Amino acid sequence: METTRRVGAQAQPTPGTTPTPEGVPPARRTVDGYLRAPFPWYGLDEAFTGPRWLMRVSTAADGTVQHGSTGHGEEPSIRPDAADQGRGAFVVVVTVAAHPVRGSGDGTGVLDATSVSSAAWLAGSGLLAYTWPPQLDHVLRNEWLDQQTETAFELADDLDGPAWTTLSLPVDGVPQPFHYRETEFGWILAGSTSRGVHLGAYGRGMSAYGLGFAVVADISTYV
Predict the structure, then answer these.
(1) Of 211, 215, 222, 223, which is closest to residue 47 (Cα–Cα)?
(2) How far out from the chain centre does Cα 112 lie?
(3) Which pTM value belongs to this model?
(4) How confident is the model at residue 87, as a pLDDT?
(5) Residue 191 and residue 171 in contact, taking contact as beta carbons nearer than 8 Å
(6) Which is nearest to 165 in space by CA: 185, 198, 189, 186?
(7) What are the start and end residues of every segment in region (Disordered) (predicted)?
(8) How many other C-beta atoms can be found within 10 angstroms of the C-beta atom of residue 173?
(9) pLDDT tens digits, residue range 50-107?
(10) C-alpha neighbours within 13 Å on the C-beta side of residue 218
(11) Distance between CA 172 and CA 170 in Å, rounded?
(12) What is the pLDDT of residues 112-136, one digit of tens each?
């Protein structure tokens, strides 16, 4: 699989952003990791006027930033006792550095290529991390999450399959094709840009059809 062989499997979260047991990064986030990235970050364009917030970045063994996410709207919760069961309206944009197969910077191994499928996988697994079927307890949710994550990985490896449709959305003001699918938990899309990165996105409570993406001019505006 040219995607990632699970992009996240080789990547390490920036200190201070390690996910909790439920899969959700803790509240403390810093802009430091974002500033170290050698590629531009993407978010929703200026048509979106709601809250923007940092999520997490992931790095290779040599510390090189590989991918990361920015959030828009209401920060989701997966707490089973949350009044809205985590159904707040939000969109998360995933930026993935576009790379061919290459050696790791520290000489310890080989990093797999990234592709649009990489972005689709990260978006699909990201949406699952913020999903908690109300009938499941912690133990059963972990089993459910493993199963659903494997399915998301397989679907990301088959972007031309029947699970996906195509959607054209503006990226830096220019229409670009995206692979798009809906689930009972939200929607997922993935595509590429002319700036050397792949884009993934997932959301709930906000339609994907009216979205636009743009380079984040100042990542510090995300809090």
Answers:
(1) 211
(2) 18
(3) 0.82
(4) 56
(5) yes
(6) 189
(7) 1-29
(8) 9
(9) 999 999 999 988 888 999 999 999 988 765 444 444 457 999 999 999 876 545 445 5
(10) 4
(11) 6
(12) 668 999 999 999 999 998 887 777 7
Tokens of 62: 């040599």
- Domain extents for the chain? 7-202
CB 95 within 8 A of CB 40: yes
